[in-house]
Amino acid sequence: KNNTYMDMATKLKHKQLYDKFPGVDRQALDEIFVASNYSLIQSVLTINETLGVTSDEDSLENYEKQIVDIVQMESMQQDGQEDTTWQPVVEGHEDMYDRLRLVGDYDVIRREATVHYHMRQESFRKAKEAYQRGMKTVAAFYSQQGRAYAEKMREANERASWKLLQLRNAQCDDNTLDLHGLHVQEAIQVLKNYVKLKKRESWCLQKKQTLRVITGRGAHSALNIPKVKFAVEGYFLSSQLNYREVQAGMFHVML
Q1: How far apart are CA 179 and CA 165, in angstroms?
Q2: Which of 39, 78, 182, 255 is the most buried (most CB within 10 A)?
Q3: Gap between the Cα atoms of 104 and 115, Å rounded
Q4: Where does the record place the Smr domain (predicted)?
Q5: Amino acid 59: pLDDT
Q6: CA 164, CA 169: separation in Å to the nearest integer?
Q7: Taking all residues of the chain, what is their mean pLDDT, rounded to a whole number?
Q8: What are the beta bridge partners of residue 177?
Q9: 137 and 24 Cβ atoms separated by less than 8 Å
Q10: pTM
Q11: Rounded distance between C-alpha atoms, residue 79 and residue 81, angstroms
């Protein structure tokens, strides 16, 4: 009985959403409705926000309450048989997200970032298509989704790089930095922070130090191009650091 009541309320709110925004792509409305946990109020607020329209939350709350009251009365007259004919149309990679829950493993976190990347690309593609079709509200919604996935991708890559950095450097001494496996931008940012820290340390101790920076030879990179190594050496040159390559993929930096 309760399931029937909930399904009726959901379908009625879903229909009201269609009626309220007849010019908005229905698939986008479905996705917003699901993302808002089937709340008519939150769905309308989200759509109005993308349109730049001010929402009257009190009116929306009263409106949704009226829907619930109507459904409650109707459900008392039903025979209790559940109707599950309506299902929201939602495209995406939800199954992939379920399978890629974070378990603390580096490879899994990187794969999670890859999923976010593909979701970002898909959202921006949909935003572009919607904009070209003149559906600015839908375009704004997908664009907002794309930015959210981009932030999730950045966070996942940051967690992955930090975990790998800890694993790689667990057995290293304080003057050694192993950048194996990091992406180029991650490696350069870590290196900048490391050099800055060691420079401050040298100044405080009033003594010279020799740092060992390991980049690897790029054996596992695409086309065997050592991108991290080239970027690191470029950083040394641009920062006018005194360095030398003691062996392939390993540098000594004199501070």
Answers
A1: 7
A2: 182
A3: 16
A4: 177-255
A5: 55
A6: 8
A7: 75
A8: 213
A9: yes
A10: 0.57
A11: 6
pLDDT for 88:
37
d(CA 84, CA 104): 38
For residue 254, the cross-strand partners are: 210, 242
Q: Is the pLDDT of residue 89 over 50?
A: no
Position 109 pLDDT exceeds 80:
yes
Question: In this structure, which amino acid lies at residue 164?
Answer: L
* Residue 198 burial (CB count, 10 A): 17
User: What are the residue ranges spanned by the domains of the chain?
Assistant: 8-54, 94-169, 172-254
CATH class of the domain comprising 172-254: alpha beta
Reading the block at residue 63, the tokens are 């409106």
Q: For the segment 201-251, what is each residue's pLDDT rounded down to a tens digit? A: 989 888 899 999 999 887 766 667 788 999 999 999 999 999 999 998 899
Would you say 165 and 109 are in contact if contact means Cβ atoms under 8 Å apart? no
Q: Quick one: 96 exposed, middle or buried, by C-beta within 10 A (0-12, 13-18, 19+)?
A: middle
- State residue 103's pLDDT score: 37
CA 17 to chain centre: 28
Which DSSP string do the residues of 165-230 spell out, in sequence order?
HHHHHTTS-TTEEE-TT--HHHHHHHHHHHHHHHHHHHHHHT---EEEEE----TTSGGG--HHHH
